[in-house]
Amino acid sequence: MDTEKMGRFIAERRKDKHMTQKDFARMLNITDKAVSKWERGISCPDISLLPSVADILGVTIHELLNGEQSNTEPEGPAAGRENALQYADSEAEAAAGTMRSRCAVAFSLLLLASSAACAVINTAVSGKLTWAPFPIVSMAFAWLVFFPVLKAGKKGLFGALLALSVFILPFLYVLSRLLKSNGNILAAGAPTAALSVVFLWSVFALFKRLKTRKRLAAAASLLLAVPTCLLINLVLSKLFFLPVIDVWDMLAIFLLLISAAALFIADLAAKKKHIVSEKKPEHSGSRGHA
Fold first, then answer.
1. The whole model's pTM is what?
2. From the UniProt record, which GO molecular function terms apply (predicted)?
3. How many domains does the chain fold into?
């Protein structure tokens, strides 16, 4: 659904009727700002207003949705239903986008206010910044990673992973400097973060590649988590002289393998069901022909 084309069409028809945006809005019991947004393609009329908008502009709903006048009628009720469904989808997506934008702004303001509060309280109590930089840096890092997802939903996952990949090491370095840990945080955090980032990119690629088989992607992700956990344990064991694997690790690995197996079985069952459902019409068609 091309909202900009539809908006231009509404503006043209309104002007042809010698109506201002306020006149048009008054007839629909809405604000002229809403009409302005329609005509600029920022938003579109509510689906319940389509009959009234079409009637006032002297066009059909089909023409209104297509954003142009037509000398031919739509191809039966099916075409009207398809246009209505497309319009409802675009309207729902626009509403979801607005909600995501508001959540992203609220999240940003909350972190900004929290950072300011930490700085003010720390300065008021200690006379200088002592502990405040830790939460401020952490919140800044959280904003960089989570903002793309809050703003764009699933489409923001790539941006979030990219931000995590780029800023995780600088974040650990700054944290190490603030804590004056002599490089211990960076020594332990860098390889652990690198392995985690590789794992997350792999999971992202799996779900991107297996769009129609999410159970299989989830099963593969769980299997991939096993060597990732073992490698992280190996890194930490060398730094802090810990066992590479203990009872809890074995239990976690067992649960991961069981879950992966269950998802594999569910994927195979769903695939088999899909194949059977595709064959049924063929068999019924061949019997009818006979």
1. 0.70
2. DNA binding
3. 2
